[in-house]
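Whiteboard transcription, Tuesday session. T.W. wrote the structure tokens on the left side:
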């Protein structure tokens, strides 16, 4: 086959280092072409998300005083990559909650009068402290008239629907070249409810902020699932007669996609 080549090309091919040079060239091209896939970066420039979050209880974690409040949220999220390297992927993070449910414990006080007349009266109230069921009886004579009744305190719940938005937020993913990435996040915003929360003398408009951490598992370079725990706070910043505030430990699951 070599005899069909021009003389100058036959001479060049006959040089002994030529096969080595040719092999090194192909190897260099192959390595350069494969290096991004061999060590990929699992990040996205723009990310859309759907999320669900739930908290079964509240307590005085840092700032809130209203106990035994529940939260249930459904919403959307948007992230924008700001900076990334081998260690961290820093992102803007915003969330919209078209469905934000908050539940308060309701104390129902029922009094059954047995003397001097027989009738029943009932009243309910929402208090900062948790509801504790109890019952008892009372009897006393005044001016020869016997007054007696039994009473009971029972518990129920009031769910209030609202909507919220957290336009200010950031997320830091670590080890962005790995499929499984730990991250920290934080947001600030507000929630507006159809009635005052967490008590009737508080406001319907409340400010919110959260701080959390979790893990994000990339199923591909464009799709991932996040699971996280957040400290979540709600309060009206003294814009209403009372401001007990709510501290919740919030568990959230998020499905994300984008490019």
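and on the right, the sequence the group agreed on:
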């Amino acid at each position: 086959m070599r005899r069909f080549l021009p003389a100058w090309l036959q001479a060049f091919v006959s040089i002994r280092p030529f096969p080595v040079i040719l092999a090194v060239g192909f190897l260099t091209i192959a390595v350069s072409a494969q290096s991004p896939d061999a060590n990929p970066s699992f990040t996205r420039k723009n990310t859309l998300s759907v999320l669900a979050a739930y908290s079964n209880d509240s307590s005085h974690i840092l700032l809130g005083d209203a106990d035994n409040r529940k939260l249930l949220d459904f919403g959307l999220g948007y992230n924008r990559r700001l900076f990334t390297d081998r260690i961290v992927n820093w992102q803007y993070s915003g969330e919209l909650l078209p469905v934000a449910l908050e539940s308060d414990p309701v104390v129902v006080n029922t009094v059954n009068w047995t003397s001097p007349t027989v009738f029943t009266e009932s009243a309910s109230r929402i208090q900062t402290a948790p509801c504790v069921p109890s019952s008892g009886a009372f009897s006393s004579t005044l001016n020869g008239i016997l007054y007696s009744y039994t009473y009971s305190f029972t518990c129920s719940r009031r769910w209030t629907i609202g909507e919220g938005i957290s336009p200010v937020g950031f997320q830091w993913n670590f080890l962005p070249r790995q499929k499984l990435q730990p991250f920290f996040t934080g947001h600030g915003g507000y929630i507006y409810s159809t009635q005052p929360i967490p008590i009737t003398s508080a406001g319907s408009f409340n400010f919110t902020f959260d701080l959390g951490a979790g893990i994000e598992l990339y199923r591909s370079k464009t799709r991932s699932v996040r699971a996280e725990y957040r400290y979540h706070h709600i309060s009206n910043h003294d814009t209403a007669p009372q401001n007990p505030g709510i501290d919740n430990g919030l568990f959230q699951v998020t499905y994300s996609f984008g490019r």
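Someone added at the bottom: The radius of gyration is 32 Å.
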